[in-house]
Fold this sequence. Notes:
The protein is mainly α. The chain has helices spanning about 30-50, 55-60, 70-100, 105-120, 125-140, 145-155, 160-165, 165-185, 190, 200-205, 205-225, 240-245, 265, 270-295, 310-340, 340-370, 375-390, 390-405, 410-440, 450-465. It contains 20 helices and no strands.
Amino acid sequence: xxxxxxxxxxxxxxxxxxxxxxLKPKTPLPKLQIGxxxxxQLAEAIASTSIFxxxxxxxxELGVTGGDDAAVGYYAGIIESxxxxxxxxxxxxxxxxxxxxxxxxxxxIGLGGACVSMLCxxxxxxxxxxxxxxxxxxxxxxxxxxMKTMIGESTDSTNMAQAFALIPIVxxxxxxxxxxxxxxxxxxxxxxxxxxANSFWGKYPYFLPCAVAACLFALVLFIMTLFLEETLSTKxxxxxxxxxxxxxxxxxxxQKPMADTSLRSLLTPTVVIPIxxxxxxAFLDISxxxxxxxxxxxxxxxxxxxxxxxxxxxxxxxxxxxxGVFQALFFAKLVDxxxxxxxxxVSVSSYVSLMVVLPVMSWLARARGGADxxxxxxxxxxxxxxxxxxxxxxxxxxxxxxxxxxxxxxxTINGLAQTSASIARAIGPAFTTSLFAASKExxxxxGNAVFFILFMLACALRWLGSRLPDEIKxxxx
Length: 477
């Protein structure tokens, strides 16, 4: 038989498999399993964003700046970066440890560490106690990479994109609840003096939002213990079938962990290019998240909007709910219409526009003596651009997952991606807030140097995004 014209596929361990030619029925998502994983992510999103409305005010009250409002950004950036710096040192180790002892034990350690560190953060009365609490949280927390791995192991080629599309939606919901909670519950003696008359609340004015976040971690830990199934093949209970995990019965379950896989063997262009895009996008995103509250809280005469923590929390909460609505209504449709690569580049383009809107908003607030209707309109436009920008993470998660040679390499691939992103997120807040402070203090480019540099970096990322694959390739074990 002549086989000269027959299609051939040569696959190595580091080459993603080609799309499945036969049409497969779509496997239903394992709702309880995915829902439990996303509940953990929701708790972490709420806790991490709850400090944004009050962190700048907390730095001022600690007296570490010596009364210099322009220097607040330096110290706030350090606090926001420390978690990711500590996480970058350990997240890959946690991911690979989860390939040996299982996913659930690592999540338990991460949630317990986050609970304790949030309580310590709320009880901190010095700058160095804030530093220690954030570092402890980062060292003990490798959850995000493990959760992405569990989603990948709980799905197959027919429902993986649907599951990963939920991640940015849940993060947006946390981005709505967290700032609203932090801004509302900070300094409770000011809002509810009768209810919080005890001197404890005067000594620790920011303990209440931290305590609520810690209780949320404890609740999620209890829920996880009851409902979350182990997904590592060597640690599963016998009753955990492929159907329970949402994997079609035609796909063999992985039988061997990949804890000993050589990292060098995975560092192919197919894997590295999406991870580099993910790291740079994470840098720009965390820079924006650190910059915007600082910009909101900075006095008008220094080029900010002069908002108090409650107003900052309200605006950040509004962004969170708008982002969630955008993700829920438009993300899947836009991925189908544009493809992950083009949608990612659209998201980066919105970031470029955002870095133009912020200095315009600063000029409006200074010219009009505060936040009037024109500034409010600009704020709403900024929220729309931020929501479009937020779609970039969902597209990159799909591309990174599809780049894994086999399902058994997902733990390591996600660990590499999260390590890169954590390094970027460790640098981003300190770099951006310090640059913001230096821009205002030394009037660099009229106080707008930080916006110009982020604008140029976003343009560079748009070019880097052109190196992503035009179509993601579906792979099954």
